């Protein structure tokens, strides 16, 4: 998007940003509703409102200053900042809310402007014979305001700001020089005194909150600033702090100058207190008119920027709205649309309703700005290098306060706003864009880095007390069989971490690297289709042994060392492949890692209703691991209807101790199995053992059998090819007994 067709707009400095902000802060709400606020919630309540309001606006101002100093800020102000951080989809959704709040603000300030003519109500009725309607003023005033803005653009608006700021200063001087209303004794002032039947705190907060939102008014001039990275932070922060100080003095003066009933009922009570009452009316008129001008300048530029990013449906409508005139690229068409929206709101709205509506829109925008600053702090992206930095906890506070205040002010409006945001997001959603994913990826990378380092420092390699699977699999037979990946997914569900590496044999040259990237894309698509949480990647190496050597020495994706490796072969594979699996398992055993070998066939784990575990005299170390892995598998939804049976085939003398151990674990609730599912079989002969396994487990969906490295060295492939009548079998070896406590 290029909204600066003829260079950087008008080339303004910092002062217009400050003046636009402060003249909006010291605006209609201050003149018309601060007395109402003091009368309904008391002085202490209003000070709390000012405090809460600035818990939102100060973090937002700091976040805005931070984000604005990170990159070149172009036309569109806050929308440009949000969209270039969250992406144009989410940025577009928030930008539309921002634009609507700015467009509605034009109407709001003109409705308030008409209130300055209330003292003439009686004279009007006697002169014309019918009652005064504020729209007699607000509608013509809106048209009169739009004409010069449309034809003269930002230049005339900024000139008016200088005059308005001077008038505001004089009206405030008049107010502070004023005396209490007749008959009021300042000695009777109470911090908590309120009128009868007062409005609730959060209703008052919602009505008053737009007074705090003016601090970003100057940001919308970003496309017309000479150096926005300097002017936006300085002008915004100074306007915010100045406004806060002035507000505190005003509410204190109000509380010491009039009774609560008068404050609550007379929206022009400041005129009764001021030294020269007419200056309050002039100040109100100038403040509301200048705020309306500011909003009328800023809103079209936001709309122009939205259209420049193609947010709206139809290329022609986007081109029409984005079109500017003159060297400064003034958004004439966008101003016409904004004026039409403002005319409707002026005709229909009242001050309090529109104020609550604006508050909700601004909360969404401010919350987004604070969230960006917070996330960018933890994302630590190299491209994010602001010259001014806020504090992450202030940004987080601002984002949380915005969300809380939305629901406190009006839960119905808050839910409606969220629903509208969701609908707009779906309408604007498009693929392949947005910095939001990059930002969250940066946050996750930083969190992973921190936690990985912490885990490495705390974890001892020999600690088997809280064993959880971190299993790696290196395989070149990825796409012609599904059981191995399925097993890895089950083993690492919820409790563990899995890494699958597709092996590509060869040297790591340009050709093989390109092949690995293409294969990685296929792997990720496969993982997506299977809804797998396994980390998928490729490894290029001259041989499987070298690939294993590389893979077993690097940490897993969790930051902890890989403590298990899964191999596989099919019933249909040749004896040579089984011999390779034996070789790889013996090689991996050198790293003292748990060895898992899956033998699978056409059964694909059947109905997933039964898991049989066979414990023998060789499984003193393997037993607990076999049981734990079986129950990890059982925890996956695919096995939700399954049960586990344990067969302890042991010599008679070992059986007694095994029975005691199992009974204790079951009684303590550490072994999630019933006594009736454990069968103790006295066994001394290997052939009898194999016959028992065949008879009892040939119908099991998965059978778990232990093995030892010594047996693998002696009997090689026979370790895995025995029990040929069984269906799918998981062979388990662990170098050290884990503890089930």
What does this structure look like?
- The protein has helices spanning 15-25, 28-68, 78-86, 88-115, 121-128, 135-152, 154-176, 201-208, 228-255, 260-265, 269-273, 277-308, 315-322, 332-348, 351-379, 392-409, 411-428, 435-458, 483-491, 510-529, 544-553, 575-588, 622-634, 652-667, 686-697, 709-715, 718-721; strands at 470-475, 497-505, 535-541, 564-570, 594-600, 610-615, 643-650, 678-682, 702-706, 729-733.
- The chain starts with 14 loop residues before the first helix and ends in an 8-residue tail after the last strand.
- Residues 1-8 have low confidence and may be disordered.
- It has a 10-stranded mixed sheet, sandwiched between helices.
- The protein has 27 helices and 10 strands.
- Strand 4, helix 22 (575-588) and strand 5 (594-600) form a beta-alpha-beta unit.
- Helix 1 packs parallel to helix 9 (228-255), helix 2 packs parallel to helix 15 (351-379) and helix 4 packs antiparallel against helix 12 (277-308).
Topology (SSEs and partners):
Blueprint: H1 15-25, H2 28-68, H3 78-86, H4 88-115, H5 121-128, H6 135-152, H7 154-176, H8 201-208, H9 228-255, H10 260-265, H11 269-273, H12 277-308, H13 315-322, H14 332-348, H15 351-379, H16 392-409, H17 411-428, H18 435-458, E1 470-475, H19 483-491, E2 497-505, H20 510-529, E3 535-541, H21 544-553, E4 564-570, H22 575-588, E5 594-600, E6 610-615, H23 622-634, E7 643-650, H24 652-667, E8 678-682, H25 686-697, E9 702-706, H26 709-715, H27 718-721, E10 729-733
Parallel strand pairs: 1-2, 1-4, 2-3, 4-5, 6-7, 6-9, 7-8, 9-10
Antiparallel strand pairs: 5-10
Helix pairs in contact: 1-7, 1-9, 2-8, 2-9, 2-15, 2-16, 3-4, 3-15, 3-18, 4-6, 4-12, 4-14, 4-15, 4-17, 6-14, 7-12, 12-13, 12-14, 15-16, 15-18, 16-17
